[in-house]
Amino acid sequence: MGMGVEIRNKLARRAAEEIRNGMVVNLGIGIPSLVPNFLSEDINVMFHAENGITGMGPSPQKGEEDENLCNAGGFPVTLKPGGSYCDSSIAFGMIRRGRVDMTILGSLQVSEKGDLANWIVPGKRVPGMGGAMELAQKAKKVIVVMNHCDKQGNPKIVKQCTFPLTSSACVDMIVTELAVFQVTEHNLVMTEIFPPYNIENIVKNTGCDFKISDNLRYIPY
Amino acid sequence: MNNQFGKITTLERVLEYFHDGMTIMFGGFGGVGSPPTLIEGILKKGIRNLTLIGNDTGFPHIGIGKLVSQERAAKVIASHIGSNPFAGKFMQEGKLEVEFSPQGILMERIRAGGVGIPAILSDIGVDNEIVAKNKPVYTLNGKKYLVEAALTAEVSIVYAKKADEYGNLIYDKSARNTNPLVAMAGDITIAEVGEIVPLGRLNPEEIVTPGVFVDHVIPSKGGDWKWAWE
């Protein structure tokens, strides 16, 4: 994503604050995969993977990888006590049935209404939707973690997505290196700012209007 | 080892099923759990114009990706082709037709095929013009659903950790992934396995795919590829 390690870690740490005890959580590739590093030890969470794992643990030590134990991105993982394997249809059954509490994923654009566009860059890349549509449409809470602007400096939070949608009105929360937004029924609301950025920076780099929360939090890390 | 059901056989024998223009369904997810020996055999047989059905197109040198990157496929039905740049390239050049299906719905279409159901109703991507294209819409209890057609194939190829003589299968961790579904959806299903054991040696409570669905079992020679993370 062209983002420094420190910033990537900050975003992952902020997203990790949303995870509560007992949740089933699906993590996308990239920054979302860093989220487990920032969970406090008293939180019990089952990480879910689309290929058919519930209860993924941390990456194995180098040399201890098992080629038949990988996450949906194809990278080696481990299994926590209480974890289990299933086939991919069951893994998606968990998602569609509403048993996956949260998904944390990246995006190309998010609209003020929470529309998600993260599967096609028109004219460039058509990788396919993978499991993104089901996760976006059916996970109980959808958190997008992404750069505030694209490489050309264009806002990625926009009035209307110009890229093809993955799913409409599905995003609940957006975390960028500048700020945190909640998508409510009526508005997009900025609730938190990452210092040293200020409201002016964020207005300038956001492609739609938004409300500013009365209890604006300045994130202390 | 006995071979009471005649299911245990060789790569050479099962390769007789494979021919130009056929439809092959494959197990595996990002190459994990794809049958390496069968794929290599199909590649060496030199058949073309294949329709491949499975989760994704693997990596250029991993899993089903080998067949895609060496231009053996005319059509792919998958949820993701992003890890195999050749798939995207051939699609742009018009050499490869790609039908994208949302991942979990693709799995249900395969399962439906495997259990004799002609189609399923789905609300995934019902308002998405790419997903909904050319699919009938059915209204049930006031809600709109896409009619997603079941998928079957002339031959399904899967990888399992162990088979017994009857073709009962157990899998290995996340290498299970799409294999139990794909195993049910082939007119002929061929399982490549790490180990073949006598009848009675697998715990009946732990068998994932009943041998009823498996026509042939061949021993695996293992994968010859290096993973992206290696």
UniProtKB/TrEMBL annotation, chain A:
Name the source's superkingdom.
Bacteria
Q: Report whether Methyltransferase shows up as a keyword of the record.
A: no
Respond yes or no to whether keyword Transferase is given for this record.
Answer: yes
MF annotations from Gene Ontology:
CoA-transferase activity
Q: Which UniProt keywords apply?
A: Transferase
Q: Which Pfam families match?
A: CoA_trans (PF01144)
Q: Which family does it belong to?
A: Belongs to the 3-oxoacid CoA-transferase subunit B family.
Q: Which NCBIfam families does its entry note?
A: pcaJ_scoB_fam
Q: What is this protein called?
A: CoA transferase subunit B
From TrEMBL, chain B:
**What protein name applies here?**
CoA transferase subunit A
Its domain of life reads Bacteria
Q: What SUPFAM superfamilies does its record include?
A: NagB/RpiA/CoA transferase-like
The answer, when asked if Cell membrane is one of the entry's keywords, is: no
Q: Extract the PROSITE patterns matched here.
A: COA_TRANSF_1
Tell me which family the UniProt entry assigns to this protein: Belongs to the 3-oxoacid CoA-transferase subunit A family.
Whose protein is this, by species?
A: Neobacillus thermocopriae
Q: Which UniProt keywords apply?
A: Transferase
Molecular function (GO) terms for this protein are: CoA-transferase activity
The keyword Transferase appears for this protein? yes
Q: Name one Pfam family in it.
A: CoA_trans
